[in-house]
Amino acid sequence: MTGRKTLTIIGILCALAALTLVWFLFKKRPPASAPASAPTPSLTTTRPNSDKPDNRTAPQPTSSADSPDVPEPTWGPTSEQLAAAQDAAAAMSDEQLAGQVIIAHWSGTDPATAVKVMGDFNLAGIILMGPNIADETQIKKVSDAVQNEQQEAGRNWPAIISVDQEGGRVARLRGVIDDVPAFAKLAAAGSDEITEALTRMGQQMSDLGFTMDFAPVADVSIGAQDPTIGDRSAGSDPDDVADAVTTAVAALRDGGVVPVIKHFPGHGSVTVDSHVDVPVQKRDLDELRAKDFKPFEAAINDGAPVVMMGHIALEALDAGVPATLSPPAYELLRDELEFEGVIVTDAMNMNAITQDTKAGEETVAALAAGADLVLMPPDTKAAHAAVLEALKSGDLDREKLEESAARVIALQMWAHD
To answer: Which residues are catalytic?
Structure first.
């Protein structure tokens, strides 16, 4: 028995030793290579062979601050506002889009008339000229009625309610708000005087419901030979005018209205009034860059949101064609001066335009050339119908017109947020 017990014990010990050796060898063996894992499906990948929707969380949009590839606009609106405006323009019918690029004049002082024009043609806005202005109470009724129409039409941005209020001899609101001296006189008094006078003027216009003012004049005057601009300009020195214009733009913005610098490419150095005929600018481009363009360039670099294109034919660029109808003029403003904001035409009911175009044609031609907004077509109904027909025929590209409308909508979203 003793011998058997001994053998049994030895056997157990050997088995334990063998198990220990096996365990030791297993621990020391290198692990087998793992098979390559399948790529993780993206959040937007559709599951194969499945009719069921993928309910996983979709990636969230990033803000422009998180996306270095999306630069902020240089002229006012944020990239988010511009994107929202693009969506709004893209959702418009042709009839709505055709109106979103027009600022119209209207008859009389009755708010109902202004509302009807807005509603009938889906306009971007209206302008109040002398015959549309009675007193402070009437202006407020007009602006309130127009903005109510804008909201009832489902547009969640303000309509443009504009006026041509420079001060001096161009003062549509004379007797309604405080008098403001001519720009030349303000500029001579210094930047503090410009800031004080135009901030107050902007505040008073904003209180009346105006959203846009066709001022300041950025033209450099040549003096006595200049029959149109004169003291509406800040002066004859391009640098001094540039300083005055940038100060005026900031003051009007601080006052609560959108300023419009005018009249590109410069009305102060031509000797014909565009209300009467087409002024011809004979300066070459180098001289224009050294003189007439300087105030516009300075204001654009400082963030001016709107530039008015004048009815001036640049002989060195597009001989015989008013800049308002000239694609090279708009390209010059966009490409060389790098202006990204809204380009509005000068009033299209002026003789420089109407003497050679049929009602409605001027609006289509300006938009095709590069305008974003057409101001005061001589016949609003004809203008709207002509734009609509041009969209249908392909003479106007819908995508480009959406871009123009989006700039206008974004401007209003930003300026009156």
So the answer is: 275, 346
